[in-house]
Each structure stands twice: as structure tokens, then as C-alpha cells.
Amino acid sequence: MAAISKIATGNGHGENSAYFDGWKAYETNPFHPTDRPDGVIQMGLAENQLCFDFIEKWLMEHPEASICTAEGVSKFKETALFQDYHGIPEFRQAVAKFMGKVRGDRVKFDPDRIVMSGGATGAHEMVAFCLADPGEAFLVPTPYYPGFDRDLRWRTGVELVPVVCDSANDFKVTIDSLQSAYHKAQEANIKIKGLLITNPSNPLGTFKDKDTLKNIINFVNEKNIHLIGDEIYAATVFMEPEFVSISEVIEEVECNRDLIHIVYSLSKDMGFPGFRVGIVYSYNDTVTSCARKMSSFGLVSSQTQHLIATMLSNDEFIDNFVAESRERLFKRHKYFTWTLSQIGICSLKSNAGLFIWMDLRKLLKEKTFEAEMDLWRVIIDEVKLNVSPGSSFHCHEPGWFRVCFANMDDYSMEIALSRIRNFMVKNNETMVPPRNKLCRRTSLKLSLSRSLSRKMDDFIMSPSIMSPQSPLVQART
């Protein structure tokens, strides 16, 4: 048999990591309230499923948005025929307007700089191809999204150099950490072409304040390297202070705008990962031109562009949707983290994203990544929850786990929380959390935890919840 390329057969995809292994465990035995109640609950997927009823209502009221309805069929022919890689003008205008809206309309985006791609995955690869040659590298603060190893490295040959951040200062990015990583790369003869930051952060659920962003922009200007801002969670900020975008900060500081690039998508803010709408927004004319040519390999379908353009152009709907999404994320996050705190589980204080950064360091048998993986296997195999270990996010401290809370209905969430609580009680680990800034403080003792346990059991086993006719059950069937 003829040989297959090294790129195709190599491990560049990163599929053999614990992050993807957890997905496989879920896919082989997925939880279902009636068919598979002992299955694995998916808590490793950062999806925003809390507002689909809101979107479905709009779609029912605006059937013309789809070319596959009687009301929209008049647009079928022109949408089905060839569209060039610039994208439908109405689509680019609507996306640019939406990007400004979710940033409080404090900055405007030029539709002519909107370059589309097949999701943020394709957008990141496109930027990597534009900015760096094989063997060159980007700095990336840790912990960071495991998919970056695939998105930026696999087919481009670009390397990622970690910028080590730790819990002592809530994993904040500092100039000292950036300088240290940059100098280590120089000593290893690695050419740094840029810095990639996620803001808000996946997996931390935090975002960078204006002073931090100013320091970062000053750093890239001093080094004359590019800054890529992944802002795909911009509209998931559900508590004050308000999100600050790179696009706002560059209006206030002197910088070379040719070094500034933003990656965006509708996968998280709107909950549309299946639509594969990714965006590259560069302030560099050459990068914009090159990226647009490369976008031919990952265009968004014209049908999707038409639907998105119609939806995002409806100001009243978008205003209400963004407000409702933030409110629901806030309530889910508050309930989820409060319940965990009652059973002695701490998490990093956060106000954005679709996940929490859960601290299970006290459950490790020893402070090693081997012990972290042992604990993770118990959570997967016995507790039947797919959570993601910190090591898969390149975290340099064992014992942290990312847990997604917005990709399930209320019933599934209660089952998941009940399983966590039972695991903690079984292992006699329910205790008063240490009183530090990383922990949500509680003075409850084990007896109160057991009281909560009984209340949760009463809720889960109640006839109205367990009935197949329950809306919560039907939402999963």
C-alpha cells in the first residue's frame, strides 16, 4: 500500500489526549433520563444550550429567514447559486454590527474587514498560516483550550510556547510571565511571531481587565510581534464588570494596529457551533487580503449566511437575546457553584464563559499529574461525568478541572450535581473549604451537606420530575 502523508497520520490532531478521551467515554455510554440513566453525563462540551427556546420562537415567527420554507423560497435560487469568498454583504454587515453590540457598542467594526471561516477552528488556522512559517511560534498563556494544539499547529507546522500562569494570582497574565516565556524561547532558538490570548478565558471563565490588556499591547509592540485575541465568549459575560475587548483598548493606546487581530465566532455567544460561523477580523490590510483568499477552503454556506444575516439584523431580537442569555447563564452559574460550595468544592471566581474551573486539589492522593489522571478516571468511570482534567489544558498545577454547566437541561444538571455530592460523601471529603480567595466560602458541616443530599434526592425522585411527561425529561428525549 502506498504511504500516507506524515501530516495526515501524525498525532497533530491531539485526539489521544484526556480531553478527547472523555468525549469518547460519553459517546460510548451517553446519559439518557429513561433509556440510559446510568450513562455518562457530558460536562466536557462548552455549548450554550440555555436559550434555544428563545431562538426557536423567533424562527417560528420569521419563516422567511430560511430558504427552505414557503415564505423564504423566493430567495432560494440566488442563495443556492455561487457566492464569492467575500461573503454575502448583508451577512458581513450583520456580523460586524453584532460584534459591536455584544461589546456594548463602544467600538464599531468594519464589514469590509470581516473574513469568514469554518468556525473558530478554521479561523485560528487561517491566522496561523497568515502570520507564521513552520517552526515559528506563538506564546499562549496557560491554561488554554486543548484544541489550540490542533487548530494552530497540526497542518501549519507552527509551534505553541506556554506562558506559565498559576493560581497564586488567579492565573492572571503578567508582564513577568510573558517576558520569561519569550526569553526562554529565544534561548531555544525559537522565533516568536505572536501572542494568542483567549478573552474571556477558556477554561477559566474570567476576562482580562483594561490595564492587563494595555500591558499586553505594550508588550507585543515592544517585541514587534502579533497579538491574536480569541474573543468567542464575549457575550457570555454575565456579571460586572463589563467585558473589555482588544478593539476598545487600541483606541486608547498608541500601538501598531497592523499587529492586532481578533478571532470570533457564533458558536458560543449564540450557541450555534453546528453552523460553523467563524470570523477573522484583522486591522492589517495584508492579513485581511490573504485571509480572504484562504477562506475559500472553509466558507460558511450561503444558506447559513442568509439566515444569520436576517436574524442578526433584527435589533429587538438581538438585544433581548443577549440580555436573556446573560441572565440565564448567571442563574445557572450561581446555582451550580453554590451547590458545589455546599459540599466543599471550590472554584475559581469567574463571571463569563460556559464552564467553571473547579479545584479538586485536596482530593489528590499526591500533588502530581499522575494523581490527577487517577482522580479523573474515577470521575469518568465511577461517577460517570465527563469533566476535563487541567493537564489537558496545559495547566501547570495538578488538581484543576474544567466543568461545563450550560450544555444541559435542569434535570441533567441535578443528576450531575447529585453524583458529585454522593462521590464527596462516599469518600468522606465533604469539609469546610479553606478560607482563601479561590474558594467560595461556606461554614456548612457534613450534617448540612447530608441534609442537602436528601433534598436533592427528593427533587430528583419526585414523580413530577421522573415522569416521562415531565418537560425536563422530554427535553432530553
From TrEMBL:
Q: What is its EC number?
A: 4.4.1.14
Gene assigned in the entry = LOC107904481
The source organism is Gossypium hirsutum (Upland cotton)
Q: Where is the Aminotransferase class I/classII large domain?
A: 41-420
SUPFAM superfamilies recorded: PLP-dependent transferases (SSF53383)
Q: Does the record carry Lyase as a key word?
A: yes
Quote one Gene Ontology molecular function term.
transaminase activity
Q: In which pathway does it act?
A: Alkene biosynthesis; ethylene biosynthesis via S-adenosyl-L-methionine; ethylene from S-adenosyl-L-methionine: step 1/2
What CDD domains does this protein's entry cite?
Answer: AAT_like
The answer to whether the entry has keyword Ligase is: no
**Name of the protein in question:** 1-aminocyclopropane-1-carboxylate synthase
Q: Which Gene3D superfamilies does this chain map to?
A: Aspartate Aminotransferase, domain 1, Type I PLP-dependent aspartate aminotransferase-like (Major domain)
